[in-house]
Structures are given as structure tokens and as C-alpha cells.
Amino acid sequence: MSTVPARPYRGRSAEERKTERRERLLDAALEVVAEKGWHSTTVRDVCSRAKLTERYFYEAFGDRQGVLLALFDHVSQEVATILLEAVAASPRDDATQSARAAISAFVDALADDPRRMRILITEAPDDTELQARRQGAVLAFAHLVRDQAAEFYGVSGRGKKDAELTSHVLVGGLGQLLLAWHLGDVKVSRERLIEHVTKLFVAVAPVRSGSAS
After folding, report:
1. What is the 3-state secondary structure (H, E, C) of 52-70?
2. pLDDT, one tens digit for every residue, the chain (213 residues)
3. Domain tally for the chain?
4. How far is it, in rounded angstroms, from Cα 141 to Cα 178?
5. Among the three residues 27, 45, 62, which one is the final residue of a domain in this structure?
6. Where in the chain is the DNA-binding region found (predicted)?
7. Residue 7 neighbours by CB under 8 Å, 6+ apart
């Protein structure tokens, strides 16, 4: 039995309208979670903010947790894109300038929109699936730092393993520092924060652990 393809509506295909609804729901979820916290956010809250029915919510995400995971993926991809663009535009012959560009982009992406900070770092720490996504994102960012450092310093083999070890320390430490700064436990200007982390990254990037396995 053949199916009749959905007709375009106001010049947009059914798939385009579906994508638009999903984006509206994600934007609404980001706003509601930032205001109320994940545990107080309901499907009705998100749909009301998006001005869409619950039918479209379940079509897009399946269930309530689905929107949380999709929101995390969406925000982490946004930040990764910002970071990659900054790295691509940075000078390739100056380690300090290259590191500063990447770190500035990362810090600005979170500081300029605290909702991203909340989704990426602080929200729903008891959700095991979200925590697994967070660990995956940390791993991806660590690999990005590793690959950039290995390319910049022209290392391979055991040297690349050194870069990997260092990248995990740096990415994990930066996440903790940003959280403490966001909460006000560390009171410095954004400029000093970026400058300090930049110098730290540049200082430790060449560290090698010799012949240790």
C-alpha cells in the first residue's frame, strides 16, 4: 500500500516543520530548566513555553528524559562548534595565542549564556544517563585538546600519549574551575581567569613522562 507524501505547508516540507518544532521545544526547555531546574520542569511547562501541544513533544523526544538528553547534546554541540571555529581561526605558529583563542571561546560560550553552564555542568547530577553523556563530552573535549597539542608540537607515538594524559587533567580542571567561578567560590575577573588558564595550558602542554609505560 503506497503512502501519500505530506504536502508542503506555506512553502515548508513536513520534515522542515518537524525540525522547526523540535528546535522550538529545545529552546523552550533551555529557558524553563534555567528558571526552574530540571526536577521542577514538566512536559507541560516546555510545551506551554514553546506554544506547542504535547503531541509534538512526544513526537520529538519520546519522553521527558529525552528532552534533557537532547538538550545536553544540542548545547554541547553548540559549544564544540564555537571552540572549533576559534581554533581554526587562531594563529598556528604561536602557542599562547592559539591557546588563548580556544580558552576564551570556551569560557565566553558558557559565561555569556549561563544556561549552557547549567546544562553542561550542574543540572541533574543524579541522572545516570546524563552523567554518561557528560563523561562522553569531557572525553571528546580532551581528545580535541590532545590532537591540537600533538599537531602543534609535532608529537606522535609515546608523545601523543603524554598529550592525552595532560589533556584530561586540563579539561577536567577547567570544568571544575569554571564551576567554582560560576558559583562565586573563585572571585577573579573573566580576563584573569582566561589569562591564567592560558598560561597553565601552555606551560604543561610540553610535559613528557619519559619512558614510563
Report:
1. CCHHHHHHHHCCHHHHHHH
2. 444 445 565 667 889 999 999 999 999 999 999 999 999 999 999 999 999 999 999 999 999 999 999 999 999 999 999 988 998 888 878 888 888 999 999 999 999 999 999 999 989 889 999 999 999 999 998 988 888 777 776 666 667 888 889 999 999 999 999 999 999 999 999 999 999 999 999 898 888 886 655
3. 2
4. 15
5. 62
6. 42-61
7. 14
Within-domain flag for 147: yes
Query: Can you give the CATH number for the domain in which 31 is found?
Result: 1.10.10.60
Is the pTM above the cut of 0.85? no
Is there a single domain that holds both residue 129 and residue 163?
Answer: yes
26: left (phi over 0), alpha (psi -120 to 50) or beta: alpha
Assess if residue 42 is contained within a domain: yes
* Phi, psi angle pair for 9, to nearest 5°: -125, 120
Neighbours of 45 (CB within 10 A): 17
Last-in-domain residue among 24, 40, 62? 62
